[in-house]
Amino acid sequence: MKRGSAKTLEKEKGSEKIIALTVNGEDHLVPVEDRDTLLDVLRNRLSLTGAKEGCGTGECGSCTVLVDGKPVLACLTLAVGAVGKEITTIEGIAASGKLSPLQKAFIDHGAVQCGFCSSGMILSATALLSDNAKPSRQDIQKALEGNLCRCTGYNKIIEAIESVKDKK
Ligand code: FES
Ligand code: FES
Hints:
32% of the residues lie in helices and 17% in strands. It has six helices and six strands, in the order βββαβββααααα. The chain has helices at 38-45, 90-93, 101-108, 118-131, 137-143, 155-167, and strands at residues 11-13, 16-23, 26-32, 64-67, 70-73, 86-88.
C-alpha cells in the first residue's frame, strides 16, 4: 500500500488490532497484539529481517532501527507505539537496491564479519551522520556505545564511519 492511504486506522479483531505502520516510506496495515514488539512485527509480519534479535532485552543493539530519524531498540519498542512515526530499517537505507555510502564503506573497510551487528551499527551511524556530518572519533564511539560487535574489535567499524565523514 502506498504511503498516505492510511494513517492511524485501528480495527479491533479479537485480541488483535490492525494498525498502520509507515516503514521505509510505505504504509502497511498490520495485525498486531498490544504486546507485540516492533522487532517482531518488522521481521515476522513484514518480512524485514535486517534488524536482528540478539539479546531481546535491550543490551546488544542488533535490533536498532530508526524511528523519526532516531535510533531505537526495536526489541523494546511496542509496535502500537510506532503508529504515525516514520520507521526506517536497513532495507530502506539501500535506496533502489543501491548501497548507501556507509554500507559500502563497511564492506570496503572489512567492518562486516558475521554481519549480525551490522544493520544496527549502520543505522546508528546513519543517525549520527545526519545530525553531525563531521563527528569526532569520540562522537562515533558514543553513538555506537549501545551496539555490540563480537567480531571486529570496533576499529574497522569506526574507520568505515570516519571514511564517509571525511568525504562530506
Ligand atoms: S535484540 Fe534488541 S538490544 Fe539486543
Ligand atoms: S560483525 Fe559479527 S557481531 Fe559484528
